[in-house]
UniProtKB/TrEMBL annotation:
This is RHG20 protein. It holds the Pfam family RhoGAP. GO terms for molecular function: GTPase activator activity. InterPro entries: ARHGAP20-like_RhoGAP (IPR047886), Rho_GTPase_activation_prot (IPR008936), RhoGAP_dom (IPR000198). The keyword Phosphoprotein applies. The keyword Isomerase does not apply. The lineage of its organism: Eukaryota, Metazoa, Chordata, Craniata, Vertebrata. Residues 1-169 form the Rho-GAP domain. GO terms for biological process: regulation of Rho protein signal transduction; signal transduction.
Length: 180
């Protein structure tokens, strides 16, 4: 999935904003869940993007860990960018290794898409709005007003992560997929 998103996402207008066919997504998700072979290259890239967001939303406790939710949200209240980056790196160290590896690849894809935002109309702000709710959610449900405020904060955090991904995850993030 990530490889396809890395290849096609940067040249796809509205990637992660537009949804794939709900029927196709449901059918493919059932096939993937059953372990059947699925050739996503034959599907719309919007279906792949929708399936990927669904995958992220189904990670127990979220990829950024709902247990660290308050700490993630408070990062954006810290002083300068250097302090924010150091705090983010400390939080990343607290995540399971599998989450960190997946985050690196996710931000490698998002970075590639953002770098071609003039073509795809998906800058860091737009991408963050679309993907942030799939990366972190509070450990308990709350009122719509509180959830709306949370979504704004996590979107701001994800935008910052994208804009500083090379400093946070390392410069090699731009070449994780090699020459595809």
């Amino acid at each position: 999935m990530l490889s396809l998103l890395y290849q096609e996402g940067p040249s796809t207008e509205g990637i992660f904003r537009r949804s794939g066919s709900a029927k196709t997504c449901k059918e493919l998700k059932e096939k993937l869940d059953s372990g059947a072979e699925v050739d996503l290259a034959c599907e719309s890239i919007f279906v792949t993007a929708s399936l990927f967001k669904d995958f992220l939303r189904n990670i127990p406790g979220s990829i950024l860990s709902s247990q660290l939710c308050d700490k993630w949200i408070s990062v954006m209240d810290e002083g300068n960018n250097e302090e924010k980056i150091k705090s983010i790196q400390r939080l990343i160290e607290q995540l399971p290794r599998a989450n960190v590896v997946l985050l690196r690849y996710i931000f490698g894809v998002l970075h590639g898409i953002e770098m071609r935002s003039e073509e795809n109309h998906m800058n860091a702000f737009n991408l963050a709005i679309c993907i942030a709710p799939s990366l972190l959610w509070p450990p308990v449900s709350s009122t719509p007003d509180v959830e709306s405020e949370f979504t704004k904060k996590i979107s701001s955090l994800v935008q910052f992560l994208m804009e500083n991904c090379c400093r946070i995850f390392g410069e090699e993030i731009t070449s994780l997929f090699g020459e595809i």
